[in-house]
Amino acid sequence: MRSTILGVVLALFMLCFLAIVIEETFLGGRRRRKMEKRLRGEKNADNANSRA
To answer: Do 24 and 30 contact (CB within 8 A), yes or no?
Structure first.
C-alpha cells in the first residue's frame, strides 16, 4: 500500500517535470516570457508618456 502511494506520487512528479521541460523547449517558454517582459516595459513607458 505504501509503495503504491509512493509510486503514484513519483509518477505525478515525473509527469509534471516532463510537462515543464516540453513547455520550455518546444513552446518557447523563455523567449515568450522575455517578449512579454519587453512588451510590459513598452506599455508602462507609453502610460508614463501619456500622463506627462
So the answer is: yes
The residue among 25, 2, 4, 28 whose CA lies nearest residue 17 is 25
Q: How would DSSP label each residue in 5-52?
A: HHHHHHHHHHHHHHHHHHHHHHS-HHHHHHHHHHHHHHHHHHHHHHH-
Q: Which residue has the cell 515543464?
A: 20
What CA–CA distance (Å, rounded) separates 9 from 3? 10
Output the pTM of the full model: 0.54
Contact 29, 23 (CB under 8 A): yes
pLDDT in tens, 8-43: 999 999 999 999 998 888 877 777 788 888 989 888
